[in-house]
Amino acid sequence: MNRTALIVGASGITGSNLASELISQGWNTYGLARNPNRNIQNLHPVTADLLRPESLTDALADVAPTHVFITSWMRMETEAENIRVNAAMVRNLLNALSPKKSVRHVALVTGLKHYLGPFEAYAKDGFLPETPLREEQPRLDIENFYYAQEDEVYAAAAHDGFTWSIHRPHTVIGKAVGNLMNLGTTLAVYASICKDTGRPFRWPGSEAQWNGLSDVTDVQVLSKHLAWAATTEAAQNEAFNVVNGDYFRWKWMWKQLADWFNIEAVGFDGTIRPLEAEMAQDGPFWQEIAKKHSLVEPDLDRLASPWHTDLDLGRPIEVMTDMSKSRKAGFTVYQRTEESFYNLFEQLRSDRLIP
């Protein structure tokens, strides 16, 4: 059966890896972004601005996708603005595709803020869910741009008759440059700075995260999950958590990461020490490190997103997700989490992004 994919956000951590996965499976694949990824072999770049309907109409004039994968979002100053802008991006895209009558399935990638609350109320008292997180848990009684994105997909599906799937990963681990949320690369850069400057590789987060159970999502697992749900009848019109399938405690994992870089790990000492403050003055250090080791990206802000890593590691509760819904529907991919980090670090080093 002919399958033509349109990946929205193909330059990001999820979209770029999804493109490689779909192309390897034989999909005809288009990648839409304001600055499309042109480094993936056999990916057809599409340049468009999701906030300008006329831009989408022009860019998609000759593209008739059967499957749409929405992996992009835009961060604004307030949640009200997040809702306005990110809902419009989804709505504009699906409106532009509607006259073609080609779309059979739309997949939307969101995340655990569905359960934990938006940035303005993230994991705060009154919004702390019971864990492990399960897909049947109701929406929080608070505005959330993930809900607005979902509602745009539901409305378009009802109008145009396609099926949908919602994918909720937890902390995606994978390579991307210029990504807004990238814990794995942020920790790799932080460890590299600590090693080069002799600073301690100090745990930045909360006691609950240090001692509690957690999980993450390897980007390869997420890519395979997106492809599986788009082509599996049992996954149609369903929302799914997507994680590696194992649990860990950061007090164990932190030492594994430190050992990989051959530095000493310093654990929780009773005080939260946010990375955003710790790395605030590290731009010049990173430029020196990049020059000394002939790295290809001297701009620290293009690699590290400490503000988002602080959100994840500073939460006041342990957070893990239930994968039984996917397992029951037939998705059996599993990934050991320490290997997700090691594989990422090796790739970053091979690509000369860290020393």
From TrEMBL:
SUPFAM superfamilies: NAD(P)-binding Rossmann-fold domains (SSF51735). It comes from Pontibacter qinzhouensis. It comes from the Bacteria. Residues 66-355 form the PRISE-like Rossmann-fold domain. Pfam families: PRISE (PF22917). Transmembrane segments: none annotated. Signal peptide: none annotated. This is SDR family oxidoreductase. InterPro entries: NAD(P)-bd_dom_sf, PRISE-like_Rossmann-fold.
